[in-house]
Amino acid sequence: MDHDHRHDAERQRLEQQRHGEIDWRRWGPYLAERAWGTVREDYSAKGEAWEYFDHDQARSRACRWSEDGLGGICDQEQRLCLALALWNGVDPILKERAFGLTGNQGNRGEDVKERYFYLDATPSHSLLRYLYRYPQGEYPYAELVAENRRRGRSDPPFNLRDHPVWEAGYWDVVITWARAAPGAIHCRIRAHNRGNAPATLHLLPTMWLRNTWAWGDDDVVQPRLTTTGAPAGANWAVRVTAPAPGHCYLYGAGDAALLFTENETHQERLFGVPSASRYVKDAFHRRVVNGETSAVNPVPEGTKCAAWYAAETPPGEAFHVDLVLSEEALDTPFADHEAVLAARTAEADAFYADLLPDAGTADAATLRQALAGMIWNQQFYHHEVRRWLNGDQLPPPSERRAGRNRHWRHLRARDILSMPDTWEYPWFAAWDLAFHVPQLALLDPELAKGQVETLLSERYLHPNGQIPAYEWAFEDVNPPVHAMAALEAFRAERARHGAGDTAFLQRVFQKLLLNYAWWINRKDTEGHNLFEGGFLGLDNISVYDRSRSLPPGYTLKQADATGWMAMFALNMTVMALELCRSDRSYDDMAVQSFEQFLAIAEAIAGSEESGHAGLWDEASGFFKDVVVTPEGTGHPIDVYSWVGLIPLFAAELVGPELLSCAPRFRRALHEHQGGAYRGSVVCACPDAENEHGEHLLALVDARRLAAVLRRLLDEDQFLAPHGIRSVSRIHADYTDLGEIPGIGHTTIEYIPGESTSDLFGGNSNWRGPIWLPTNYALVQALRRFHRFLGDGFRIPAPCLDGAEVTLAEAADLIGERLTGLYRPDASGTAPALAGDGPLCGPEGEPLLQFYEYFHGEDGRGLGAAHQTGWTGLLAKLLADSHRPPTL
């Protein structure tokens, strides 16, 4: 295959997808790592999801809403699933899904206890590679639970990597899926013996149909899996007969025993009542591990099947299993098997080389595996709240009517969504998803746009305009970052194709107006343009639980909520201006959104006209939350954290090409020259132009920006070796905040690592670690400020002994520290992976895990280990470092 074709092949597939010519995404990695322990599968009275449906039940219980598996794929509606099951000959359980601690078992809340890695993926799913690292000794289920239960909050979690089970050796099992055509998928499962002695591994590639028939969802035709004649080059074949996705064929090479059962709950084991079928979901576990020959159907048919391979392999050697899934019957399914695997790998190499040309080995691996994780973290998300609340076919406990998500009966999800993490968070999270958009747009703007539109559709967006937060509590409030996400997708497409999708922008603008109105009406109840919102996804960053109500008469005005809303107002302003280019009627909306921004700017800055002191603390040069007493007195909360940095995010540039289409808006800029609003200077001057003819719309002016940046670039305050800390390091010493009205005597503590608090389950910490989403937004804002202010605006950087830097240099400094998280040091270990040491895959490639957050001092990865989600923003930062970002 010539180089040019390799270079263009993946782009051509994405263009075919974009124009609706070929649906390359009708099969994909949409199978979660965990379906048990989720809200959707919880039909308990008190909402105890982890206890109602746990890992022990998962092998025996048919799921209601979704399926899980190891390294698997499925169709877009998850009707037909394929994944891998394994057994090392000593485990008590056939390994069909990832194991981890429930939210109540660990000292850090829910936590997966497996070793798996997303090695590679392309956005069309033409290539997917996944590594599962499987101990050859008995998997220590009970010990992991017991040891973590014994440990307290001051102890680190006890992980599988810490257990001596690895001393016996392990298997590296790599699953590769490669497309020959949209409906023809080749698979190779390659198992490498990494032990010191010969060992036997059982591989059971498994195919099954999601159980829809038990819930009355399916057509009259009962889906079935049956054997059929094996064509040339294949040793066995299974035919799928189903209303959706339709007839399919699975072909296998090599001798294997075919096992069949039904994807039905094993009622006798779980509940002591007769099952709907003699052959049930856990049949393969019982047959392979327990030796129960009667567990599987002697007639080769069912709704779940597996091909049972077993091989003894010398140390250092490998064996493999080959499969082909086809929507059409094939005469010679494996004729081009090797060529397909090789071609898709070469095309993926070319695609990623184009995204990050001339990159070093470490950066190239970081970008590629980060984006692979983004692709693998797309999941089929299925949930109908009304039906779930009503109990499906059984009346629900009466307590459910007053329980979780009862006000969200309209929500009907049946979509492919980008998840934060397919084990720890196997559901969408609204503000996480918004921060997935920049890196998804780097892969494919069309994919990114679809995520924004889905979340804003009438099936998700509440009739009152609220965006659902996440499955555990749709009514929680996440930051209003979805207009930002829409602009990211729009700008990325314009940069890629030369023109943005104005129709997309128009559609989402209308929906975002509803959400904007919800924020104005619900989170500024007193009409002061100062906003509340609770914890806003920042969990325990505050001195107390901000989701808890204050005493009557007291209110909390949040600098972060108000800063987010100022950003939202500017995002809406720019979106309206973009739409003005084709429809001048949006000029009025641009003016209206900008006037709302000015009102927020006046409120946060404080003025006599507004009647309060605002959230800017002139003495310290920082934004702070303020508690307002019943008498109207404001009491600033003296904390230095992201709460006071987020107002910097409200910064947008408007060029002459937009202003030429919006005469009313241009006049409005002139009316507020100097940043004046109702007699006070409240923001940066919107009327001034830079050498490009651009105007800066920003909450902070140059003076306030410089004051905040002096703290930001100080290594004794916010600037860590690997990014910006979420709480300033000064709170390592300055902890006593004294008496705060309505809250009481309070303290704040800088905690650079894991949380020491049980707040929000204790498995998330914003008291000092480094988080990618806010760091990314800050870097983007600094780049916008620099674009306007230019090289002439310089600030002293305490981290450089007071040497002056431009804002571009400040942004680069932060960006380099963030991307440095995954660059190996002199010992060969990247800071983020210090807990693991350097890990290598079967081909010598580095094995990277993308953590939820990172230690504020040494950069070690913490929290969820597979939360590529918004940590995948590292890929966008790396790409921006090699080419100008779209601002």
CATH superfamily of the largest domain: Glycosyl hydrolase family 63, N-terminal domain
Shape: globular
- Derived from helix and strand composition plus strand pairing, the structural class reads alpha+beta
Major sheet: order of its strands?
6-7-8-9-17-13-12-11-15
Tell me the span between the first and last alpha carbons.
37 Å
Q: Please state the second-level CATH architecture of the largest domain.
A: Distorted Sandwich
DSSP strand content: 15-25%
Overall average residue pLDDT: 94
Cα-atom radius of gyration: 28 Å
> Number of domains in the coordinates?
3
- Tally the beta strands: 36
Q: What do you see in this structure?
A:
The chain is of the alpha+beta class and 887 residues long. It has three domains: 353 residues, Distorted Sandwich (Beta-galactosidase, Chain A, domain 5), CATH 2.70.98.110; 208 residues, no CATH class; 117 residues, no CATH class. The protein is built from 23 helices and 36 strands. The strands form twelve sheets. Strands 6-7-8-9-17-13-12-11-15 form a nine-stranded antiparallel β-sheet. A six-stranded antiparallel β-sheet has the order 1-2-3-10-16-14. A hairpin with a 2-residue loop joins β29 and β30.
How is this structure best summarized?
The protein is an alpha+beta fold. The chain contains 23 helices and 36 strands.
Secondary structure: elements and pairs:
Layout: H1 3-18, E1 27-28, H2 49-52, H3 55-58, E2 70-75, E3 80-87, E4 100-101, E5 111-112, E6 116-121, E7 127-135, H4 141-150, E8 170-181, E9 184-193, E10 199-209, E11 224-227, E12 236-241, E13 248-252, E14 257-261, H5 267-271, H6 283-288, E15 301-302, E16 304-313, E17 318-326, H7 337-355, H8 361-376, E18 378-384, H9 385-390, E19 412-418, H10 430-443, H11 445-455, H12 482-497, H13 502-522, E20 555-557, H14 559-580, H15 586-605, E21 616-617, E22 622-623, E23 626-628, E24 634-636, H16 642-645, E25 651-654, H17 656-659, H18 663-671, E26 676-677, E27 680-681, E28 695-698, H19 702-712, E29 719-720, E30 723-724, E31 736-740, E32 744-747, H20 772-789, E33 794-796, E34 804-806, H21 807-819, E35 853-854, E36 861-862, H22 868-871, H23 873-882
Antiparallel strand pairs: 1-2, 2-3, 3-10, 4-5, 6-7, 7-8, 8-9, 9-17, 10-16, 11-12, 11-15, 12-13, 13-17, 14-16, 18-19, 20-23, 21-22, 23-24, 25-28, 26-27, 29-30, 31-32, 33-34, 35-36
Helix pairs in contact: 1-7, 8-23, 10-11, 10-12, 10-23, 11-12, 12-13, 12-14, 13-14, 14-15, 15-18, 20-21, 21-23
